[in-house]
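ok so I'm stuck.
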Amino acid sequence: MCVRGIFLICFLALAGCASNVPGKTEFAPWKLPDNHPREVVQILNGHYGEQDFSLQIRLSLTGERLKLAGVDALGRHAFDILWDTAGVRAGKADWVSDKLNAVDILKVIIATYWPADDPMQAQVADRAANLEITYQTTRENAWNETVVIKDPKTDYEMTIISYELTE
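replied:
not stuck anymore, here's the structure
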């Protein structure tokens, strides 16, 4: 419980610092899946080719928007994404690779966490086709457990440990 509290405080502080999201990208308008707001903290570990990465993510899904803030293992702001009815806006630190693409991140999130029958799944089918997603138990529990995502085509793999914050 203490660890969740520490993550929450860190991510709230970082989210406030990372609210400037300059780059706009075309994507479907925001719609909350299942009308279920969520506040989620995630730990991501993996590799992209030869490059290892470790990130901490804070996701906030409300009726108005999805907001994502990411920091690296040293606590440095890495990137942030805002997805609302106006579209997707994203920003990233100068040290983050140009290969980091906000829409690609959102497509992987949708493919992994949205319900299998959600209409958004059809919109991300191009990205989801290459993904091998392994759930600890079931897709419905994915917001509160470990998920492993592999993309053999691009040689990337990551393990995501998620904790949904409750009031």
